Amino acid sequence: MSFHHIMLAASSFEDSRQFYLAALSPLGYKELRFVEGSRSGLGAEGRPVFWIRPLKPENDTVSQGLHIAFVAKSREEVDQFHAAALEAGGKDNGAPGERKFAPGYYAAFVFDTDGNNIEVMHEGREFYLAALAPLGYKEVRTVEGVVSALGPNGKPLFWIRQVKAENDQISKGVHLAFAAESRDVVDKFYDAAMEVIACCCPILSLTRCSAHAFVRKSGAKDNGGPGERNYLPGYYAAFVFDAEGNNIEVVHV
Question: VOC domain: which residues (predicted)?
C-alpha cells in the first residue's frame, strides 16, 4: 500500500507555502497546483502529492507533531535540503549525517514553520533491495543500524554494513557481477536500479531505446544499458553505478 497524497493545515498558509517551495526544491518538487488563499499542491513527477492549506474559519486544527520523511536521490540532495530549509526559516533538528536506523541511512531533519519534523533521507540499502529483487534477492538477515544481508532462497550472499566510527572506509570502486537466469532478468535489473519512469523516445510504448534515454528518479547512474558485450559469445549484461560509485553488473551468458 502507498499513500496517494498528504495535506497539512498551516497556521500561516503563505509562510508554510514558501518554506516548502524552498526546502523541497532540491528534491525536484515544484508547485503544480495553486488556488489563491486556498491550497497549494507540490510534486516531483508531474502529480501533486504534498498539499498545504490554510485553517478553516471554524473548528479546525493546525497540523503539528508530524514526522514526514521524503526520499532523496543522493546524499547531496539531503545536504541541499537542509541548507535550503534553514534559509527558508526552518529550525534545525539534526544536521545531515549517517543514522543508525539502517546501514547507509543518511538523513537531515528540520522543523517547519508549525513545528512538524521534516526529514529527507537517502538509504544505500534501498538501492540494492530494489535493484536485486528481479534476481530473487531479499533481505534475509539484518541487525538494525549495523548490517543487512541479501540473498536468494533465504541464503545471505551479499552483505551491506554501516561504516565503523574509526579507521574505516566506504567501499568504492568495486565491480560486482551478479548472474541472471535470463536476458529478461538483466533488463528488469536495469529498470529497477534506474527506477525508470518512461522512455524519452518518441514511441512511448517502448521501454528502452538504442540510446538508453530514460527519465530517471533514482540516484543511480547508468554505466551501460542492457545489451550484448564482446567479452564472450552471448554475453548479455547491464551496468549501473550505485550511490557510492561501485560498478554493479548483472549478466546472462
Answer: 2-123
